[in-house]
Amino acid sequence: MRDRYPGRTWADVAGRDGDLPEVLVQQSNPPQDLRDIAFARYTDQQFFDSEMERMWKRVWQFACRDEHLAEIGDYVVHDIGRFSVLITRSPDGLKGYYNSCLHRGTKLKPSGATGWSPDITCPFHNWQWNLDGTLKAIPCDFEFPQLDRAKACLPEVRVESWNGMIFVNFDRDAPPLLDYLEVLPDHFANWDLTGWYVATHVRKHLPGNWKLAMEAFMEAYHTPYVHPEMTRTVGDQNMQHDIFSDHVSRDLCAMASPSPTVTNPPSEQELLDSMLVADSALVGERARVPEGKTARWVMAEQLRNQMRARHGLDYSTHSVPEMIDSLKYHLFPNLLVYPAPGLCLIQQFRPDGHDRDRAIFDQYVLHPKPRDGDFEVASVEVIREDETFASVASMDAFLASVLDQDTDIMRLQREGMYASGKGAETLSIYQEARIRHLHDTLDKYLEGAK
């Protein structure tokens, strides 16, 4: 493995408590062109417009979870820039339509809308379509003798689902979703998220380009300086970074393991007593670390027991890192998925309208579905750019604090890009390799190679 933090690696930490599954043993971080990345890729309107036309219209992008569209008639609106898709569950399955009336172009449903409806009705002149997209009714029908009713169906956008997540694609000629996912289905073969649901959904408007916003979550080089309180309990600069293919990369970060920057690391018992990351409601009260064991092992055992007792879920074959670590997979262009039960998240970053300088950040916290099937999918809680995650009562306090630290610095980065006399960023060879890879894949779309 080339040029990475010296000393104990994530693999060293993860392997202390037993064998790892093959998907976590794999390492892949191929050589790259170490060029600088121009700030114009974040700040230039023409570059942004090219992204919208040549990339966003051709990629599979996460829109919602299966539980958002559980019943026939449920719908969700997914927006990306000025594009908008109305996704619904029809009697024939999932359907996606351009969110625009065939009469005068009015949006059929407002941006970000969710709900239930027996049909699709334009709010302007009441044109109606069935859930399968066929025309249902037109007021003053006699006024449109030129209209071929059989052909007046809502134009469709492709919709497919995988592992409880629903994706859309504007490109009718794009490869199937499973092909686009590349190695993800194999890696997630033992990480089933279909039995989970969205317990918390927070959306924040951010002061920066969508790539700038997301890239803060693709490296931990900044952690000792932006999140110093995390360094005693979270491995950061010794994380493992893997690049598997054009669309898939990941980072693996050890929980209950100190940063390599810590000069006086805590004991295993101190780690367990002070562990701040993971859902404490799932893990339960802290115990003593048995002789010869680690804080990580204790946390994983407690979580296995809680999952079995509360939800009837058997994680006995899952390794310690599969239970508690941050196993963060990036799917190009804008999705991060964390499958470990102790930190099960989905994060998504996208342009905020047609503004290259602002982004929308969605965070979904997933919990196991109760055994009795009685659960309520969380409604989205929207916070403005000047509001904090800490102000959201439903959020874990520590996680909210970390997200506030991440997002507070984004305005400085955006403003610094415009103020720069250099005009480009210099990325590290390993810890920031996946950021460079993001731009490599983006170029393939912009140049027509994908």
Write the layout of secondary structure elements.
Blueprint: H1 10-14, H2 22-25, E1 37-38, H3 40-43, H4 45-56, E2 61-65, E3 74-80, E4 83-90, E5 93-98, E6 114-116, E7 120-121, E8 128-129, E9 135-137, E10 156-162, E11 165-169, H5 177-180, H6 184-187, E12 196-206, H7 210-215, H8 223-226, E13 240-243, E14 248-253, H9 268-274, H10 280-283, H11 295-311, H12 320-324, E15 326-331, E16 335-338, E17 345-352, E18 355-368, E19 380-383, H13 397-408, H14 410-419, E20 424-425, H15 433-446
Parallel strand pairs: 12-19
Antiparallel strand pairs: 1-20, 2-11, 3-4, 3-6, 4-5, 5-10, 7-8, 8-9, 10-11, 12-18, 13-14, 14-15, 15-16, 16-17, 17-18
Helix pairs in contact: 9-11
Keywords: 2Fe-2S, Dioxygenase, Iron, Iron-sulfur, Metal-binding, Oxidoreductase
Domain Rieske: 60-168
GO molecular function, one term: dioxygenase activity
User: How many β-strand stretches?
Assistant: 20
CATH class category label of the largest domain: Alpha Beta
CATH architecture of the largest domain: Alpha-Beta Complex
Provide the helix percentage.
10-25%
Beta-strand share of residues: 15-25%
Low-confidence stretches: 276-280
Q: What's the average pLDDT?
A: 94
Distance between the termini: 29 Å
Give me the Rg, rounded. Answer: 23 Å
Total of domains: 2
Shape: globular
Largest sheet: 8 strands, mixed
The number of helical segments is 15
Give me the oligomer status.
Answer: single chain
CATH topology of the largest domain: Naphthalene 1,2-dioxygenase Alpha Subunit, Chain A, domain 1
Biggest sheet: strands side by side, in what order?
13-14-15-16-17-18-12-19
SSE-based structural type: alpha+beta
